[in-house]
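Standup notes, structure subgroup. Blocker cleared on the VIB input:
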Amino acid sequence: MKWTDKTWTQIEPIYQKIIKMPFIEELQKGTLPLEKFQFYMRQDSFYLENFARSLALIGARAHRVSHALDFIRFAEGAIVVEKALHDSYFQEFGLSQRGSIEPTTHHYINFLKSTSALDQVEMAMAAVLPCFWIYQEVGDSIYKNQLSEDNPYQKWIDTYAGKEFKELVIKAINICDSVAENCTPQQQERMTQAFVEASKLEFMFWDSAYQLKTWD
Ligand SMILES: Cc1ncc(C[n+]2csc(CCO)c2C)c(N)n1
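Run returned:
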């Protein structure tokens, strides 16, 4: 059994909880209060910038040059493609400043940075995989179950439900499976742990946006 198949079954309960979150259900219906989406977008803009730096660092540390190139391209994608989504929403919703990094974003960013700098590169690859894979599953699930045709969050949905994004995710999944093959069972277990932790942080990221959770 592939490492990714085995590992996804571990986070299936977290994924099921994510698709039933009010943030996701209301995003799907288009009824999510603008204030909550704006909070999410502002925090996500900090997240993306730091996530891209982690991807570039993983690229630099990858053993195979083809993986280095893939991660450098992922890093570029995080800045170019998703930043464009942010810029258009920042403009559309009149967001001028992003404010400051709130607790969950702070936690997630620092988890990614320390994992990609200090842990074995295979663990770092596993830690960034939920960011790709969960977004693709959530994007697909929203797209399939969508009722409203006039959704202010359609651009967000289309970014993650598209064919292009799916190909990117398959690439990230295949890289993890190929590095896992050369790992010991203990190392594979540590990869799984990093994957599970990042999945919990994905849940928390949406939950904190829904609750507008700040340091104060
Ligand atoms: C909290 C949070 N987690 C994941 C993503 C999705 N995402 C961000 S960068 C990237 C890879 C390259 O495009 C992906 C899939 C997000 N936007 N915000």
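Discussed briefly. The mean pLDDT is 95.
Next: hand off to the docking folks.
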